[in-house]
Design a protein that fits this description.
Helix content is 40%, strand content 15%. With 563 residues, the chain is an alpha/beta fold. It has 3 domains: 3-232, Rossmann fold (3-Layer(aba) Sandwich), CATH 3.40.50; 238-350, Rossmann fold, CATH 3.40.50; 380-558, Rossmann fold, CATH 3.40.50. The strands form 4 sheets. It has a 7-stranded mixed β-sheet with strand order 3-2-4-5-7-6-12, with helices on both faces. A 5-stranded mixed β-sheet has the order 9-11-10-13-14, with helices on both faces.
């Protein structure tokens, strides 16, 4: 039995924040979940996937082709009365936002939770957007845990809020709350889980043509007022202390503030507002807090989401007090915080003496060599890159070719000695940007995309490229898994985890089905043959696709070559 299905009610388990969310969803009776993997959310989907495969719990889970599809799967299940969950990294919400904005209008029947995992400092991402903006943009309630224990509690409560409002609820985590381990008190598992519902037709709700959408927008605004009342009374929002200096924090920043107040021994001088239900803003709670302090420091990573709202409330209340944070230079809108940074800001706020910890003297040690990330030893992508490079060299075009690339481990083709990644925007952008370069330049365009990314958002771009007669070579790096995020399956895989028997879609068939004629397959480990095929393909002035098919070496070892 999967460890997250433990029936030891009342026991503490040391869980990742992501694992705690899974446990919360199980305790809440979620029966349908769908996701596209993305760090720092991946452990949520991975655990749900293996729970569904093991068959010990009534849960349907799928790795959808992208986040938009995953949200549609979860939304329709909730519309039919079955509790559901979808999770994604922050940029995945961009892909799903087309669904999100209308889903807020039509709502749900059973509880639906959307987990967005933000990545301050971009540990594994191409940007560090603050997805709290999506909650405000869509008008949907949002909870922000500061610990694994809260992650479990908030997930359960999110399902309840969702059903009371008939709206999906967003849980926003960050890398540190997703990947920190902490004690989580296990609650009871439900005796029954509702696996099947019934969709009740109502064209005045579920089909938002303009006449319906106008009505549903009004309904959403009314629900937002009810949600604000829930935020005011939420146990996830609390005030500690009685000082005239205020601090407001949310998410992992709560932990840093608590550490700073304890270590500086200033708890009696500070009124501390911890916010866990952060949208809708608990206006009455914030106003009461603002009315009792002379200055306030807002501690929140990335954008001044709470800071700006507090400034607005101060203006409305006629309170001319300092609101410190991003605008005052105490914190940056970039990167993640750390305990020392917050301790300095709190010390500055209170004018207390602060001595930085003494750093050990390391002057006698030689500098550590740089160890940038690189493709694994034996990775088939290395051989594919080398083959393309050699073919272009023999054609005399190595120095003039442009290499649009995509999101995946092969993005590391950017680094020496490969250096074959010139342009990157988002998932699937290698294909669309190749179309643009083919129109705007006379350079040779060779782009790279992974098998999972191809199914995520490459197909539609490739259809557009073929229809509009763009000319470039797309290399599909098919290693039979979604490698970068932890070896999750995708529709094209041949090597499968035990118990996974869903039908395969060969990439070659999908490409040919679009009408593209010049489609070739290579085994990159057969070097001479691969170079010869690339020379032939690259000597033609047309849209071509080469599928470099060889399994991820780590994945192959993991499953022993099982097909």
């Amino acid at each position: 039995m999967h460890p997250l299905l433990s029936k030891e009610t009342g026991q503490n388990r040391l869980l990742l924040g992501n694992e705690a969310i899974v446990r919360g969803a199980i305790e809440a009776g979620a029966a349908v979940a769908a996701a596209y993997p993305g760090t720092p959310s991946s452990e949520i989907a991975n655990n749900l996937f293996f729970i569904s495969l093991e068959g010990d719990w009534p849960l349907y889970f799928e790795f959808s082709t992208n986040e938009k599809v995953a949200m549609e799967v979860a939304a329709s299940a909730a519309a039919a009365g079955v509790r559901s969950l979808t999770c994604m990294k922050h940029v995945g919400m961009n892909v799903a936002s087309d669904v999100l904005m209308t889903l807020a209008y039509v709502g749900v029947k059973a509880g639906m939770v959307i987990v967005t995992a933000d990545d301050p400092y971009m540990h594994s991402s191409q940007n560090e957007q603050d997805n709290r903006a999506y909650s405000r943009f869509a008008g949907l309630p949002m909870l922000e845990p500061s610990s694994p224990g809260e992650a479990r509690d908030m997930t359960i409560r999110a399902f309840e809020i969702s059903e009371s409002l008939e709206l999906p609820v967003i849980i926003r985590t960050t890398t540190r709350t997703s990947h920190v381990r902490g004690p989580v008190k296990l609650g009871p598992l439900p005796e029954e889980v509702k696996r099947k519902g019934r969709f009740e037709k109502d064209m005045r709700r579920w089909v938002p043509v303009p006449a319906v959408a106008r009505i549903r927008h009004k309904v959403l605004l009314e629900k937002d007022e009810k949600a604000q009342g829930l935020a005011e009374d939420s146990p996830f929002n609390s005030v500690k202390g009685h000082g005239t200096v205020g601090i407001v924090a949310s998410g992992v920043s709560v932990c840093y503030v608590e550490d700073a107040l304890s270590e500086l021994d200033v708890k009696d001088r500070v009124r501390f507002l911890k916010l866990g239900f952060t949208f809708p803003y608990p206006v009455a709670l914030l106003k009461d807090f603002i009315g009792k302090v002379e200055r306030v420091l807002v501690v929140e990573e990335l954008e001044p989401f709470l800071e700006d709202e507090i400034k607005i409330l101060c203006k409305d209340m006629g309170r001319d007090i300092q609101v410190l944070g991003k605008s005052s230079g105490h914190f940056s809108r970039m990167y993640e915080f750390d305990p020392l940074m917050v301790k300095k800001a709190v010390s500055d706020l209170l004018g207390t003496a602060f001595v930085e910890p003494e750093m050990p003297d390391l002057s006698s040690l030689p500098p550590l060599p740089m160890r940038p990330p690189s493709l694994c030893k034996g990775c088939p992508h290395r051989e594919t890159y080398n083959a393309v490079k050699k073919a272009l060299r023999e054609l005399g075009e190595e120095d003039v070719a442009v290499y649009p690339t995509d999101i995946g481990c092969y993005t590391l083709g950017l680094l020496p000695p490969i250096q074959m990644a010139d342009y990157l925007l988002c998932m699937g952008s290698s294909v669309g940007s190749s179309s643009g370069f083919s129109v705007a330049t006379d350079q040779r365009i060779v782009s790279f995309i992974g098998d999972s990314t191809f199914f995520h958002s490459g197909l539609s771009s490739l259809a557009s490229a073929f229809h509009n007669e763009h000319k470039f070579c797309l290399v599909v790096l098919d290693n039979s898994t979604t490698a970068m995020t932890g070896h999750q399956p995708n529709p094209g895989i041949e090597i499968r985890p035990p118990g996974y028997d869903r039908p395969r879609i060969p990439i070659e068939n999908a490409v040919k089905g679009l009408g593209i004629r010049n489609v070739r397959k290579v085994n990159p480990y057969k070097k001479k043959e691969t170079v010869a095929i690339f020379k032939d393909v690259l000597s033609r002035d047309e849209l071509s696709v080469v599928i470099a098919e060889a399994p991820c070496i780590l994945y192959y070892k993991k499953f022993g070559g099982r097909k």
